[in-house]
Every structure is written in structure tokens, then in C-alpha cells.
Amino acid sequence: MDRPPNATLNYLRRNPMKSIQRHQIICLESGKAYKVLSNRHLALYGLTSREYKKKWGIPLRTPLSARSLSAQRRKVAKERGLGQHLVAWRAKQAEHRDQQSETS
Fold first, then answer.
1. Is 76 exposed, middle or buried (0-12, 13-18, 19+ CB in 10 A)?
2. Domain range summary for the chain, segments of one domain joined by +
3. How much is the average pLDDT of 61-87?
4. What is the reported pTM?
5. Gene3D superfamilies, per this entry (predicted)?
6. 76-103 pLDDT, tens digit each
7. Which of 29, 41, 46, 87 has its Cα between 20 and 30 A from that of 78?
8. Would you call 101 exposed, middle or buried from its count of C-beta atoms within 10 A (0-12, 13-18, 19+)?
9. Torsions phi, psi for 65 (to 5 deg)
């Protein structure tokens, strides 16, 4: 992957949310562009994804992937009804816990 010029990398380090772009994410440690910042890549710098986000001020719920990839994953999840499956599963778990507490 390509590296942005030093001036661009310095700008991105001051504005870390700008490093998450439509078709790439720029690693603020190495300056390289990727589709996804993997845990394996971040481990090269002694960081987890959580530590990386905290270090650079990126919200913890923000994915470390290109925006187009995140949008594609979101679309597939909605088509498969994953959100509805999760809601149903959580309701079933809560019901099961209630039944367990009643018998105790």
C-alpha cells in the first residue's frame, strides 16, 4: 500500500478521523494505507485496536476499516436480518434467566 507524504501524515495525526476514508484507512503509526487495520498489524506497534483508538482519539465504536467496506458489511447484515436475530436472541436469553431465577 502507498504512504502519504509526511505533511499529510502529520495532518492526519492531528485529525485522526480524517484517516478513515472512503476506500482506505491510513495507519497513523506506519503511514500506510489499508482496507482494514487488523489486530495483527497493530500488534507490530504493540497496540490493540482499543489502545490505538484511545491513543489517537478515535471513538471506540468506530470500525478501523474503510468506510466503503463498513457500508458493505452493514448492508449485508441488514439483508440477513442480523439485527432482528440479535434482538430475538437477547429476549430469549432474558426469558431463560428469569426462569432460572424463579426456580432458585
1. exposed
2. 1-65, 69-104
3. 91
4. 0.71
5. ROS/MUCR transcriptional regulator protein
6. 988 998 888 888 999 999 998 888 887 7
7. 41
8. exposed
9. -145, 160
